Amino acid sequence: MERHVLVVFPHPDDETMATGGPIAVHAAAGTPVTYACFTLGEMGRNMGNPPFANRETLPKIRQQELREACRHLGITDLRCMGFRDKTLEFEDPDKLTALISELIEEIHPSLVITYYPGYCVHPDHEALAHATVRAIAQMPAASRPVLQCQAFAHGHQEALGPCDVVIDASSVWEKVYLAWKAHKSQTSSYIAEVDKALQGDEASRQQAIERFCYYGLYTYRF
Questions:
Q1: Domain tally, the chain
Q2: What is the domain extent for residue 106?
Q3: Lower CB count within 10 Å: N or C terminus of the chain?
């Protein structure tokens, strides 16, 4: 059991899609989980299927979806950091680093989870991943929390090798599924496929469940 887990991502749904299983496992074990979500994903291209949001309503809708997803995953401390979607790469890196350092100093986590810098595709992902690494690297080695990172860029396995942290989230798969479902503006088409499989034969059902069960992360080496 960790003392406290701090999750740092830029968008509503990153917590669920990237690391929903690990978060739910930690929360189910009784570990407090704080999620620092830096934007409201207001520039997202998906508006629901069929569409039920527009550019003006999307931020509020996504924040509501995020709160519901956090409830399912067991995140009780959600920090909406107030930045604008698709702008983090243009923010002062020192400002981002300082904000994450302040969170770490306040929360004193034993584990921090973010994306792996250089292997997370989106500029917002990269900006926060690098800022998180800088914030922890500035700390004395003896007091640093463990940093675990999600990588998904093409070729990341060739560059980084196999994941050294593999988490079985089968005991909490339904919580992760419900968190995905909560982000309906972004996931409705995908969840429709999952729901169809869950209502199918046993083989289809098991295959659908396994989508929410196994997660690989990398321990960042400073």
A1: 1
A2: 5-219
A3: N
Spatial CA neighbour of 111 closest among 136, 81, 80? 136
pLDDT for 68-114, tens place per residue?
A: 999 999 999 999 999 999 999 999 999 999 999 999 999 999 999 99
- Give the number of other Cβ atoms within 10 Å of residue 87's Cβ: 15
Calculate Rg over the CA atoms of the chain: 17
Bridge-based pairing state of the strands 214-219 and 146-150: antiparallel
CATH of the domain at 167: 3.40.50.10320
Angle, helices 58-73/173-182, rounded to nearest 10 degrees: 170
- Which pTM was predicted? 0.97
Q: What are phi and psi of 146, to 5 degrees?
A: -70, 140
DSSP states along 60-99: HHHHHHHHHHHHHHT--EEEE--PPTT-GGGS-HHHHHHH
Q: How far apart are CA 186 and CA 3, in angstroms?
A: 32
